Amino acid sequence: MSGHSLRRRRAAWAAVLGLAVVATLLAATVSPTIALSVASWTDTEWAQGKLGTDLVSCGTDTEYSSTASGKFLNATLTGASLDPVVGINGLQATRNGDTAAQVTPTSAQHPDAGVSTTTDTFTNPLTVSVLQQDVLDLTGLTTALPAGAAGMLGEYVQVSNTGSSAGASGLLNNSGGIGFTPTTPDTQLPTAASLNLASVLPVGVASASLLIGAVAASAQLDWCTALESEIWGDGTVSGVVRNYEIAGLNLVTQVPVLKDLLTSATSTVSSFENSILLSDPSVVAARALLANPIIVTDTMTVDLSEGTVTMDLASVMSSGLNDQAPNTALGFDATKVASAITQVTTLVTAWTDAISTELQKAKSSLSVLLTTLLNTLNAALNSLTSVLNTTVTALTPTLNGVFSALPGVLSFTVNVQPDQPNAPPGAAFTAATATSSAEYRVSALRIGLLGYSTGSALATVTFATASAGANTRLQ
Fold first, then answer.
1. Distance between CA 119 and CA 99 in Å, rounded?
2. What is the pLDDT of residues 107-118, one digit of tens each?
3. How many whole angstroms separate alpha carbon 424 and alpha carbon 422?
4. Which residue of 116, 343, 356, 357 has the lowest C-beta tally within 10 Å?
5. What is the secondary structure of 160-181 as a DSSP string?
6. What is the mean pLDDT of the chain?
7. What is residue 186's DSSP assignment?
8. Which of 462, 412, 443, 466 is nearest to 138 (CA)?
9. Do 384 and 260 contact (CB within 8 A), yes or no?
10. DSSP secondary structure code for residue 78 in this structure
């Protein structure tokens, strides 16, 4: 809730209480009037119908309506929602006082049914089909968690008649909280979703896709506490807590020349194995290097067998994915991108040189009289060097081409909160009224797909949205 809204409400309540005092002074000569109030505080309140007191306490007063929702995936294509197409409609619940909570979908699980008289908790484990509509090609949204992983991948809401509500979505723990941290091992996280960028990248640029790791968001609202602070305190307690987490965001670029390098290295090692050097320790060492053509660092993976370079985008962005202010737009840091591309060429060169070094050691043991064999092996090594040079020469422009094109076809926003400044277009929420709170919404990650030549929005995909509110005092 904004400071302006709080000041306006506090002024309104001051006026109501002022009228109540006047009514008290005139009670001996004037018939009592009805004073209406939704104020609540720890000890007493003016009650409807006559001047008097009503004992209330935040957490036990049950005269509230509350709402919450969670939605793992929201997708739009040129402004039209694709939710009905992919079967993701989210989870939403509302409770009005002591009446039964209303939940959508009705198939949602109700783990605390009959347990509590004040709260209702609902969960909706994720079931999603592949999203493939025009420029949107999203795969890999599996619902199964690895063996031994706790929690669930889905949606969670909790509503009450005491003024509090909570919503969450994504990879959650059993209490509806975010179910992972930046240090959670990949073996405990679900398979990443893949967003194919082939249809939005310009002609001539290498194919690429995004890998979206585990995501989650949660929103909580304690409206009774907020009202208490607004009316009787200094108005600084909002009762709102919003969190989000993104495990990772990677870019996978297709670089076919990497496969050519692996083929050349395999052929070169085979040339040595087909000679009298088959059992030479250095040749055996070269074969061992060849058997693992996947180079892994903290921020990238170069897979020569698949011909791909996978980069951790957080490592080349101007800021990290997590702990960002509301509605933070992420962009690439040109210096970091250039350094990462250089590292790729360094890794590929080092892998190839390691194989060549072992083979050179093996060759040095041969007699100079074995002219034919030496010529054969030298030719194989020279060929490998030539292919390495070709590969390194192609790597930089290939990766540069992708990173140069990305800002024109992609936008990233994290910690999306529609009620806060700089919210992206289309991020809607329910505003506060004189008698109810606002809806407090948060989404972990919003990805926009743009037309490369026009910059116009083609599609958006929003991962892990949660909201709490609008909540209302019923009397």
1. 11
2. 999 999 989 899
3. 6
4. 116
5. ESSSEEEEEEEEE-TTSSB---
6. 84
7. G
8. 462
9. no
10. T
Going from N- to C-terminal start, the domains of the chain cover 1-56, 64-251+406-473, 253-404
User: Tell me: the pLDDT tens digits for 343-366?
Assistant: 999 999 999 999 999 999 999 989
d(C-alpha 136, C-alpha 83), whole Å:
13
Helix (H, G, I), strand (E, B) or coil at 268: helix
Asked if 169 and 466 count as a contact pair (C-beta separation under 8 A), the reply is yes
Three-class secondary structure assignment of 306-370? CCEEEEEHHHHECCCCCCCCCCEEECECHHHHHHHHHHHHHHHHHHHHHHHHHHHHHHCCCCCCC
For residue 430, give Cα distances in angstroms to 323, 366, 461: 25, 80, 21
Q: Which residues contact residue 2 at a Cβ distance below 8 angstroms, ignoring those fewer than 6 apart?
A: none
DSSP per-residue codes, 239-266: -EEEEEEE--EEEEEE-THHHHHHHHHH
Contact between residue 475 and residue 63 where contact means Cβ atoms under 8 Å apart = yes
For residue 37, give every residue at least 6 positions away whose Cβ sits within 8 Å of its Cβ, in sequence order, or none. 13, 16, 45, 46, 47, 48
CB burial of residue 64 (10 Å; 0-12, 13-18, 19+): buried
Q: Where are the beta strands (DSSP E) in 91-151?
A: 91-96, 102-104, 119-125, 131-133, 136-139
Count, residues in the chain: 475
As a whole number of angstroms, the distance between CA 170 and CA 105 comes to 17
Cα 421 to Cα 9, 350, 415, distances in angstroms: 21, 48, 12
CA 26 to chain centre: 60
Q: Could you tell me the two tokens for 161?
A: 């008649």
- Is the torsion defined by CA of 401, 406, 407, 408 positive or negative? positive
441-470 confidence digits (pLDDT tens): 999 999 998 888 777 888 889 999 999 999
Torsion, CA 99, CA 100, CA 104, CA 109, rounded to 10: 150
The answer to whether residues 426 and 457 touch, using CB atoms and an 8 Å cutoff, is no
What is the model's pTM?
0.83
Distance CA 149, CA 63 (A): 39
